[in-house]
Amino acid sequence: xxxxxxxxxxxxxxxxxxxxxxxxxxxxxxxxxxxxxxxxxxxxxxxxxxxxxxxxxxxxxxxxxxxxxxxxxxxxxxxxxxxxxxxxxxxxxxxxxxxxxxxxxxxxxxxxxxxxxxxxxxxxxxxxxxxxxxxxxxxxxxxxxxxxxxxxxxxxxxxxxxxxxxxxxxxxxxxxxxxxxxxxxxxxxxxxxxxxxxxxxxxxxxxxxxxxx
Length: 213
What we know:
The protein has two domains: about 5-85; about 95-210, Winged helix-like DNA-binding domain superfamily/Winged helix DNA-binding domain (Arc Repressor Mutant, subunit A, Orthogonal Bundle), CATH 1.10.10.10. It is built from seven helices and seven strands, in the order H-E-E-H-H-E-E-H-E-H-H-E-E-H. It has helices at about 5-20, 40-50, 55-85, 130-145, 155-160, 170-175, 195-210, and strands spanning about 30, 35-40, 110, 115-120, 150, 180-185, 190-195. Strand 6 and strand 7 (about 190-195) form a beta hairpin. The radius of gyration is 40 Å and the shape is rod-shaped. It starts with a helix and ends with a helix.
């Protein structure tokens, strides 16, 4: 299409204009996907429209068809992407209280009162660190039964100290090592702790074992 005699005639005619052999007035001829721009003297504009009417129409139609084809390909690719990409279903948040075993018998392990929690079983563990973790598991589980999910480090430390299992120097380290049971939040001065699902299950396993003895 662009090697036609009409096109070569247009190139020759445009070179004459550029070299000021036809007119000294600045002239512009632009053809792109956004439109056709011809500017200059009235004589120049009229001449271009008449001489290259067929070439302009054919070229611009080809541009429009190419843009339409690109748009169709983009839409097709989007449809394929939507069909092939799996849709992830986000499960709703489950409150920690809802996953505790409300029917679990803890009568030989814990006393849970409105204003007090007491461990009445011997804390298992062959080291002070293990006893401390078990003490925390029981304490947090008992608090959950009262609807209290989040406790401060201070509360937990004081409870462990009361039962003689607090390893004060290594407390933070043991908390970090047992993150599979706990969710830790806050800064150094305002650390909080809450029992998460694996911790709830471990506490209930511990209660079941201790309640039998």
